[in-house]
Amino acid sequence: MDTSTPALWLRSQPSLVGSPPPFDTAALPAEPDVLFLSWIREAVIAGVAEPQAATLATVDAAGIPDARTLLLKDVGRQGWSFAGQRSSAKGAQLGANPFAALPELTGDRRLSAP
Q1: How far apart are CA 81 and CA 76, in angstroms?
Q2: Bridge partners of residue 71, in order along the sequence
Q3: Are 83 and 91 a contacting pair, CB within 8 Å?
């Protein structure tokens, strides 16, 4: 296969290989933090480096998507806390629009919520 350009090389890479683990929606806990904590504990056991590092996607005042990798510091019913200041650009974005998406580092799970 010709991989002489970045596009050809990228398209030649394997994708969507393997099977995802079984996921029984009827067995989901009522609170998403319980599920997320089980996922992050699995990542630690599996040896994933820094599973608490997460890309938090928000939008700016113009509605333009903005994503930044932050360290997750707490998870619970009161919300999710990340390392950073409320006065930062990410903090201002969340203050103006509390919706965000958080894809898990392994890429096979994601959460989005206010």
Answers
A1: 9
A2: 53
A3: no
The rounded Cα 18 to chain-centroid distance in angstroms is: 21
What's the pLDDT at 73?
92
Question: How much is the pLDDT for 87?
Answer: 87
pTM for this model (two decimals) = 0.67
- DSSP codes, 31-96: SHHHHHHHHHHHHHHTT-S-TTEEEEEEE-TTS-EEEEEEEEEEEETTEEEESS-TTSHHHHHHHH
Place of tokens 């599996």: 46
Summarize pLDDT for 31-77 with one digit per residue, the tens. 888 888 888 898 899 998 898 888 889 999 999 999 999 999 998 88
Decide: helix, strand or coil at residue 110: strand
Q: What is the DSSP letter of 16?
A: S
CA–CA distance, 90 with 74 (Å, rounded to integer)? 17
Separation of alpha carbons 6 and 84, rounded Å: 35
